[in-house]
Please model this.
Amino acid sequence: MQEIWAVQGWRVFTVVCVIGLLLVAAIVFVEQSQRRVPVQYAKKQMGRRTVGGSSTYIPIKVNMAGVIPVIFSSSVLMLPSVWMQFNQ
Model:
């Protein structure tokens, strides 16, 4: 990060930091997200009464592996540094 500050200036440094923070926020959002699949249970009839028939949901994680966002974010966070080394 100090190389970016010294060579490119504070504007590029700020842009790189903002992109890094947005990337981390997006990774955390995808990691914590879940898909709610609605489930409706059947009604039972006991004599003259109708029992049951409740509606709920099954929470399914969008990212079940859990490791892919960490690998992806580390590679994307290293990208500006590698790009700056090639442009020197």
User: Anything to note?
Assistant: The chain has one domain: 2-86. The beta strands are 34-40, 43-46, 49-52, 55-61. The mean pLDDT is 79. The helical segments are 2-8, 10-32, 68-86.
